[in-house]
Specification:
With 191 residues, the protein is α/β, with parallel strands linked by helices. The protein has a single domain, classed as Peptidyl-tRNA hydrolase (Rossmann fold, 3-Layer(aba) Sandwich), CATH 3.40.50.1470. It has six helices and seven strands. A hairpin with a 4-residue loop joins β2 and β3. Its main location: cytoplasm.
């Protein structure tokens, strides 16, 4: 098995573009592909080639907590199985600059993952977690909802960008089905 669909999670609209919750969109936006609005999937959709294989790119245009609508629709239409999906999302439990891969597991309170799990009927899909830090860990007096819906501080943004760049480097391994090697490379370069 290999990855056939990369889903970047975020919230649509210019007011959310620069917010931490849009880290998944930021990674998908690194591809030199113009995503097109697709009403059938309620998403921005594109196709690219990675490691010689065609891979779908998806940015749901629902709000975060309804991401499963878009993911479920495109998976049903193109017969993409859960183990062929990579969902890229912001991760509160990791510091900015860290990116980690995992397959399955709980949503960790992430509403986008909860909705995707519900739509797919399983937790057994790949996740690429982009660390954004937690307001407590970063000594900020801010609630989680407020924190994820604000832009990173200027010292955090370059770290998040670096984690996205490291993640882009291992995508060819994921598409080639070399999951263990991708995890080793990404996690050993993590701080």
């Amino acid at each position: 098995m290999s990855i056939r669909l990369i889903v970047g999670l975020g919230n649509p609209g210019p007011e959310y573009e620069q917010t931490r919750h849009n880290a998944g969109f930021w990674l998908v936006d690194q591809f030199p592909v113009s995503l097109q609005r697709d009403k059938n999937f309620n998403a921005l959709v594109g196709k690219t080639r990675i490691a010689g294989e065609e891979v779908w790119l998806l940015e749901p245009q629902t709000f975060m907590n309804r991401s499963g609508q878009s993911v479920g629709a495109i998976c049903r239409f193109y017969k993409i199985t859960p183990d062929q999906i990579l969902v890229v999302h912001d991760e509160l439990d990791m510091l900015p600059g860290v990116a980690k891969l995992k397959k399955g597991g709980s949503s960790g309170g992430h509403n986008g993952l909860k909705d995707i799990t519900s739509a797919l009927g399983t937790q057994d899909y790949w996740r690429l977690r982009i660390g954004i830090g937690h307001p407590r860990t970063l000594n900020l007096n801010q609630g989680v909802a407020d924190f994820v819906l604000h832009r990173p501080r200027k010292e955090e943004q370059p770290l998040i960008d670096e984690a996205i760049a490291k993640s882009m480097d291992v995508l060819p391994l994921l598409v080639a089905g070399e999951f263990a090697e991708a995890m080793t490379r990404l996690h050993t370069s993590a701080k």
